[in-house]
Amino acid sequence: MRSNGRRPVGALMAALALVGGLLTAAASPAAARPEAAPARGTAQADAYTWKNVRVDGGGFVPGIVFNRKEKNLAYARTDIGGAYRWDQSGKRWVPLLDSLDWDHWGWTGVVSLASDSVDPNKVYVAAGTYTNSWDPGNGAILRSANRGASWQSTTLPFKLGGNMPGRGMGERLAVDPNRNSVLYLGAPSGNGLWRSTDSGVTWSKVTSFPNPGTYVQDASDTSGYLSDNQGVVWVTFDERTGSAGGATKTIYVGVADKDNTVYRSTDAGATWSRVAGQPTGYLSHKGVLDAKNGYLYLTTSDKGGPYDGEKGQVWRYTTATGEWKNISPMADADTYFGYSGLTVDRQKPGTLMVTGYSSWWPDTQIFRSTDSGATWTRAWDFTSYPNRSFRYTQDVSAVPWLTFGTNPSPPEVTPKLGWMTEALEIDPFDSNRMMYGTGATVYGTENLGNWDTGGKIAITPMVRGLEETAVNDLASPPTGAPLLSALGDIGGFRHTDPDAVPTRMYTSPTFTTTTSLDYAETSPNTVVRVGNNDSAPRIAFSTDNGANWFQGSEPSGVTGGGTVAAAADGSGFVWAPEGTSAVYHTTGFGNSWSASSGIPAGAVVESDRKNPKKFYGFKAGTFYVSTDGGATFTARASSGLPADGQVRFKALPGADGDIWLAGGGTGGAYGLWHSTDSGATFTKLSGVQQADTIGFGKAAPGASYQTLYTSARIGGVRGVFRSTDAGASWTRINDDAHQWGWTGAAITGDPRVYGRVYLATNGRGILRGDIS
C-alpha cells in the first residue's frame, strides 16, 4: 500500500515544472538573516469564506510535537502540506501556514517543528520542500509568538527538505528548555549543525560540530533526490544540565552516519565529541531522553526512511555511566524492518514505546515497555499463522475510506494499523493519550493504559481538520455529485457532501494516483478517470456519476495516466497516456483503442462541451482540433501561445468552440487566452499577467456568460480570481491569510451555485470558496 508520503514523481513534478522565479536566499553562506515579509496583493473586492472539502488526512504526517509545559498544546507537521495546531475543544487540527503565498510554496514542506516549553506561545517551523533543483527557493525558519496565528521568517543560506528521504527522522529543530532564546537546527546536504541565540531571528553555523552526515540513499541518482546527504537529523537537550535562564550544557545530536550517529556537547555547544561505545551499522532516527531515569533512547534503522528499512535496533544509553545496552524488542534475526517512532511517558518514567515504521506486511508494529526496555509487549502477535491476536480495536467510521476499499486475506486486515509510522507521542500530561502518524492519517487512543492491564486500547483517527491531499484535477458536473476529485496517492473521491468525509475512495480499479478525470457534459453519469499504477489498469469508467467503476483496456506501452477527455454525449473518449508514442481514441468504453493522427504524444487533451465529435489538444505552443471523435487532429493556432511551461485549457459548457487556455512560464508567453472559433485563433487577455488554471461556474444573476475562475497574477497581485463578464474584469476572491502556496493544478466553479469555487492545492487538499 503506497502512502501519500510524497513525491518526486508524477503530478507533483508536473506542478514543479510550472513554477519559476521563486524566492532565493539573500543571506551570505556564513549566516542567515531575517527578511521582510513578502509583498502582498491588494485586498479582495468580494469577501469569501473558505473551508476544505473534507477528506480528513490523506498524507504522510512525519512529526507530532507536544508542548511539555502546557496541557493540550500539540502540533503536527506534514511533508508538503504545512503545519497544524491541535484544538482540544473541537478535537481537530487548525492549519497554520495557509498564508504562504505562491512565491513561497516551498515553505509548505515542514521538515521539523519545535514548540517552546518555556514560553508556550512560541513555535518554530523549519520549512522547505526539496534540497535539489525541484525547489528553487532556500529553506527558512518561521517563528511565531502567538502559536502560529502569524509568522515571521528568516531565509537560510541552504535548502531544507520536508519532502526528501529521511523526513521522518528528527526532530531536527529544538529549543533549549532552559534558555529558550537558543535553538539548534540539524541541516541536510552537508550543511551541518546551526544555532540561533536570539529566538530564531538569526542563525550561524556551529563550526565546531564535526560531522555533517554521510548517508545517502542512492548516490547514483542524478536528480539529487535520493543522492542527497540526509545530514544532521535530531537534537535533544538534557534539561538537568541547566537552570532557568542558563543555556543547557549537555546536548545530544543525531547524525545520518552509520559509524558515527550520536554526538554530545557538555559545554552548551562549544565543543562536541562522538559518544563512546555507541552502536554502529545503523542510523539513529530518533533520540529521546528520559531525564528522570537518566536514559537516552535511540531507535535505529539501516535506511533513512520513510519507505525503506530492512533492519533496525533500539538502544538505551545510561548518561551517568556511559553504558550502552541493546534493548531491541525483537532479535536481529527476526527483524525485517527499521525502528523510528519513539516516545517516553513523562508521567510514568520507564514507560516507552517504539514503532517498526517500515514493517509494511502484514502491518506496522508498535512496541511498549514499562521497565525501560527490559521487556516489551506488542500491538499484535501471531497466534497460529496466519491468525493474529490484537491488543487494540480500530474504528475508522469517522474516516471510512481508510479501509482503502480492500478485503485482504489473513494475516493482513483492513484497516491497517499503519505504515511509515515515524511519528509517535504519548501526551506528556496524560498517560492514556497517544497519537501517531501514518502515511495517510493521524491515529490515536485515549485509553492507552488498557495496554498494560490486559484490555484493548481503542484506536481511532484523530485527524479532523488536517487536510493533506495533493490535488491533480477537479470536476463539478451539472447533476449528480457536486464534485469529483483526482488526488495523489489516494486516488480521489466522489464528494456527495463537501462537508462530510467520503465513505470510500475510487475502487474497482484503484489507482495509486489519479492524474485526470472528465465527465460527459450532456450525460454527466458517464465519467472517466486515468491514473498511475505499477501495472494495468490505468483507466476506469463509470456510468453512474462515479459511484461505481469498471476498468477499461489500454494501449500497449502505457506507464502513467496522462490526461483524458470524454465526448460531450459520452459516445467516445480521447486519452493521452504517459509512456506511449501516440494519443488514442475510442468509441464506447475503451474495449479497443486506435492511435489518433496529427497530434503528438503527451499532448493535453480536452473535449468540446457541446459537439460530441470535437476534441482538442495542446502541446509545445500548438493547439490541435479534431472533428471526427479524435481520429484525426489538425494543428490550429500556434502564434503567441506558450511554448514552455505547463498549460491547462477548458471548453465552455453549452457552447461549441469556446475555449479558454491558461499557462506558460516566466521566461516566455504566460497568461490567459480565449478562442471562440475552436482554437483557430486566440486572443490574449491583456490584464492577466500570469494564469495557471481556468474553470467555469454558474453565471452571476443577470449575466448571460458563465462565471470564470482562475489562479493567476492580475494587476500585479497573485491570487484566486473570479470574472462575471467573460474576462473583461476580475475580482480577487481570496485574501492574504488564505493563499495555500501553489494552487496551479486545477480550479472549477460549481454549475449549480453562483460564486462557489473548488480549488486544488499541492498538500492542503481541496478548498471550497463561497461568497460570504
Automatic annotation (TrEMBL):
<dbReference type="InterPro" id="IPR015943">
    <property type="entry name" value="WD40/YVTN_repeat-like_dom_sf"/>
</dbReference>
<feature type="signal peptide">
    <location>
        <begin position="1"/>
        <end position="32"/>
    </location>
</feature>
<dbReference type="InterPro" id="IPR052025">
    <property type="entry name" value="Xyloglucanase_GH74"/>
</dbReference>
<comment type="similarity">
    <text>Belongs to the glycosyl hydrolase 74 family.</text>
</comment>
<keyword id="KW-0378">Hydrolase</keyword>
<keyword id="KW-0119">Carbohydrate metabolism</keyword>
<protein>
    <submittedName>
        <fullName>Xyloglucanase</fullName>
    </submittedName>
</protein>
<keyword id="KW-0624">Polysaccharide degradation</keyword>
<keyword id="KW-0732">Signal</keyword>
<keyword id="KW-0326">Glycosidase</keyword>
